[in-house]
Amino acid sequence: MSTARALRPAARILLVDPAGRALLFRFVPQDRPPFWCTPGGAVDPGESYEAAAVRELREETGLVLECGEQVAQRHAEFVTIEGVPVSADERYFLVRTEDTHIATGGHTALEQAVMREWRWFDAADLTALDEPFFPEDLPEMLIELSVW
């Protein structure tokens, strides 16, 4: 039996509001406990990480913003919501926004089914969260980037 994982390049956004809070979406899949995650997703074939970051930000939040250069890279192995085991090459982009209104009209049918809510988190909120969040080192990333 093969244990090979699909390679999944992904662009993830560290979206930060004027108060220094980071946006996370709560996923409620049918096959596992709920978890929180930064906006972002898979890079489409032929698309750059930078272009994927802009597209994912627009689709998931309704915000049309420049995402700049990547600020971090992580490798993660997980099973996608669709049930596909992947080895993800995740590139992170720090994006600051004045607009805290999130529009989810660009979500796919799958995202509408599993992305049940969103919330802005400061350091204390994230520390007090009793559900998993990803990336797991998000607080350290935000401290290193001088957000917190």
UniProtKB/TrEMBL annotation:
Classification via PROSITE patterns: NUDIX (PS51462), NUDIX_BOX (PS00893)
Record bears the keyword Transmembrane: no
Cofactor: Mg(2+)
Positions of the Nudix hydrolase domain: 6-143
Keyword Disulfide bond assigned: no
Keyword vocabulary terms for this entry: Hydrolase, Magnesium
Domain of life where this protein originates: Bacteria
Family of this protein: Belongs to the Nudix hydrolase family.
Protein name: NUDIX domain-containing protein
